[in-house]
Structure formats: structure tokens, C-alpha cells
């Protein structure tokens, strides 16, 4: 579906989406620009697919993709995380993470523990039930990860991870 645009307005994304150029002139037909925008749209699509996969994979454990991400972030942290720390790791708002951690504490999956480095910002840790849930999650998640990367060379995954981390750093 093509969007209509004034005759002098450049288009992007296969010449389908009008682009408004502000004061700074940008080379509109740059191959790098087209590749980057295709990458962004592909990452949006991948994010949606991963959310659906995560929900399907974790449903039997009574989790959602959001809980999966929080449990994973905490389990993989070596120093312990606060709610703001989890929010930074996941690229989400502190308020959204606070809401989900509060519910997970009520459900017995997480604990708030004293933080020796900051009196007002508790550390979030896995409870015994949370650890058990994480271990059950690994039993589902690990085969899923192996199956979905069988045909992708390790070097390609490493290169992709470096690029994604570089972009995260750039936009963070």
C-alpha cells in the first residue's frame, strides 16, 4: 500500500513511505539508509515473533514473555539487580518493571532483599519457587534456542550480536 506524498517529498522503504526531511539534508537514496530501515523493520517483526514464541513457550509454566524476561535478567545477573537495573537491561521503563516485579513477588517468584549499596532501592532476587521456575524454563528454552540456531553459523550469531549491542549502545 503506497502512501501519497507531495511530489517533492522523498520516499523510503521500497519507495512506499514518505520521509519528511527537516533542515539537515540527508542522502535519501543512500543504500545504507535503506538497509538500516529494513533492519529496523525486521527487528520490529522479530520482536513480535519472539514475544509470541515466548508466550507460547512459557504458557505451560504460568509465565508470559514479560515474566520470562525479568526472570532471565535476574538469573543471569552476577551482582544482583534493582528494579531500575532490570529496566535498563530490558530497555523498559522503571514503572513497567516495578509493576511486574511487584506481581511476581506476590506470586512468590521473586523477593525484594536489602541492598547494601542503596537503602531505598532493594535488590530483586529469585525466590526458591522462582529458581525452580527458572530451571523448568531452561528445560524448554534451551532446546528451543538450539533448534532455532541449528542452521546459523556461530560466527554469524556473534556478528549479529555485536551489531545489535552496538546499536543498543548508540540509542541508549
UniProtKB/TrEMBL annotation:
GO MF assignments: DNA-binding transcription factor activity
What are the recorded Gene Ontology BP terms? response to stress
Q: Which domain of life is it from?
A: Bacteria
Q: Which InterPro entries match?
A: HTH_MarR-typ, MarR/SlyA-like, WH-like_DNA-bd_sf, WH_DNA-bd_sf
SUPFAM superfamilies (alphabetical)? Winged helix' DNA-binding domain
The chain positions of domain HTH marR-type read 36-169
Q: Pfam families under this entry?
A: MarR_2
> Can you say what this protein is called?
MarR family transcriptional regulator
Q: Which organism is it from?
A: OM182 bacterium
- Source taxonomy: Bacteria, Pseudomonadati, Pseudomonadota, Gammaproteobacteria, OMG group
Amino acid at each position: 500500500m503506497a502512501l501519497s506524498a507531495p511530489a517533492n517529498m522523498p520516499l523510503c522503504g521500497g519507495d512506499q513511505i514518505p520521509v519528511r526531511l527537516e533542515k539537515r539534508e540527508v542522502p535519501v537514496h543512500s543504500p545504507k539508509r535503506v538497509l538500516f530501515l529494513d533492519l529496523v523493520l525486521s527487528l520490529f517483526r522479530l520482536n513480535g515473533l519472539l514475544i509470541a514464541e515466548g508466550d507460547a513457550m512459557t504458557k505451560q509454566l504460568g509465565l508470559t514473555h514479560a515474566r520470562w524476561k525479568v526472570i532471565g535478567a535476574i538469573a543471569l545477573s552476577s551482582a544482583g539487580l534493582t528494579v531500575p537495573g532490570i529496566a535498563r537491561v530490558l530497555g523498559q521503563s522503571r514503572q513497567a518493571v516495578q509493576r511486574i516485579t511487584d506481581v511476581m513477588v506476590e506470586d512468590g517468584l521473586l523477593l525484594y532483599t536489602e541492598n547494601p549499596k542503596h537503602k531505598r532501592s532493594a535488590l530483586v532476587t529469585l525466590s526458591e519457587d522462582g529458581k525452580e521456575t527458572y530451571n523448568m524454563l531452561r528445560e524448554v528454552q534451551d532446546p528451543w534456542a538450539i533448534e532455532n540456531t541449528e542452521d546459523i553459523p556461530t560466527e554469524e550469531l556473534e556478528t549479529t550480536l555485536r551489531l545489535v549491542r552496538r546499536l543498543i549502545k548508540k540509542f541508549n
